[in-house]
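stuck on this fold:
=====
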Amino acid sequence: MCGIAGIYNNKLDRHSQTRLIKDMTAALQHRGPDGWGIYVTPGFALGHARLSIIDLEGGSQPFITDRYVIVYNGEVYNHIELRDELVTKGASFISRSDTEVVLRAFEIYGTSSFSKLNGQFAFIIWDRLEKKIIIARDRYGVRPLYILEHNGSFYFTSEMKAFDAIPDYKRSIDKKNMLNHALLWNTLGETTIFEHIRSLPGGTYEVYEGGRMIEHSRYYEIGESTGLISPNYNDAKEEFISLLDDAVRLRLRSDVPVGTYLSGGIDSSVITYLTKLNKNEKFKTFSVAFEDREFDESRFQNEMVSMLNSEHHMVGIDYAAIDENYCEASYHFERPVFRTAPIPLFLLSRAVRENGIVVVLTGEAADEILYGYDAYKELILLDTWRKNPESSEHQTMIKQLYPHLQYYADPKKFGFIKMYYEEFLDSFDNELVGLNIRIRNNAILANIFNKDWDISFDHDALLEEVKKILPENFYSWTLLQKNQFLEMKTLLSGYLLSSQGDRMSMAHGVEGRYPFLDHRLVEKLFYFNDSFKLNGFSQKYLMRDAFRGILPDSILDRPKKPYTAPDLQSFFRDGSWSESSNYFLSPERIKDYGIFDPRYVERFMRKFEKGLPQEIGYRDNMIISFILSAQMIEYWVRNPKKNALPESLKTVEFYD
């Protein structure tokens, strides 16, 4: 795993071009602390910061052949099988790296080679003969790739902070996209929260020639496979186990030690169990333990550790740790977040690196592909209620929605909860599907922005924007399939895999691998009968059943509890706001940065003058996390870090 950067169609002399590509690459050293390289030719340059995982000696980049140059961020897990196939086509290899496999596959198959890759990747290829650039990103947008067009030149990078190295450029917030991000937890399509910066969508590639983009194409989309139908339940279960086991096996390929994250939930427990089966040797597991028992899951983690006999490492997290690391973490996730959950993962990846591990397998994406989110249950509730409005079934279902929340168990609150869901009966099956509820919960954020921005929440306008990202066959899918598509396009790719996945692990040079995102598994499960995944209100039913009798019942039968961390409590302790919070929420800073309404922020802070309430609501936690992280991101835009590439780590410096 690495960081990549590119410059195209610039008018700089070679010295200035070299300095700029080095500065951009230097901003990505945390992603690739093991070495760096550059390639420079008139009008074009590539930079690479390397995290060494495959072919430690021979995998340096940029990788250069007679015709092509590539910089590559990611892993292709089927590189061994693909290499064998390419050899039969006449390819020859000079390294063992998967980087060379990607490039040789492109030499033989062109852009159709992208669909042959099983992995997570973003890369830039330079055609030295035809003077073309080809950029591509993996199917689900696991690894980032950003594009900036500025003053007639194009710039490419793994993280937006690298653009700060451009001498006459400064990032500026796009107000409309910031509102969309607030409502959806992500911007839509290829947009970002910054003006003129695009994110290459997952499953797409672009071609540049003659100083402009000449092609933007999609090689993959969720749910567009042909000929896939749902098998019977027993066959589905066997196929699921086989595919997931193979996904884990492939992701254990590495020339460095591999560990796993172990949260105590079913997703990471299953991945860790399959890792044990495939490694058949002792390996390291990692988890966080919260001082606040409301968030702590160490009891379940310890149960799995005892069962698997792993070498376990636990990182203790208290309120102060979240507060003190929030700003540094915001430097890496580069967009506002809605909860403090990324911070423990930021600290966990640091501990992983300190323990000599640079690759970890995790359980991300199980909730999307196996209907584990409560939004799926809420859709079933609304669908049942609307079809049978006279039945009392929906009342029973409401009481079962959130077994881990005391609020839902209080009979006195039932009437309010019922009224809340009743408002969605006529809108839940539009193109926003389950996002309607998320948008409603987040709509309050539309009121906190600077009044001079003159933006407001327009549900119909947002709906029209969502329609633009929908594939043609969207309307033929079931209600839950539609919701899966939108969850993967918004929450997963642009938020979870970024702020909690790629960015928090790569902040410390640790590569996260996600077996549940093996495209073979995602595609097959998409077409499985909905009831295999959500049986009544039993979430991830297929996986729980598949591992019954293997994993402890205490793990399998745990009610769904989202991974969370203390939010407001971390910033308001012992009756006062923390030093960092006071700095970023001060009237001077709020006015200077110009993102939020100073009066709103002042009222919000005064709300807690007498201390925190015993029960802190979802919205207050969301508001403080969002405002603080947005302020911190603006701070880093105004105060970019100055980095330099150490000459001792240079591996490639090539001038054409």
Q: What stands out?
A: The chain is about 40% helix and 15% strand. The first helix runs from residue 14 to 26. Residues 547 and 621 are 35 Å apart (CA to CA).
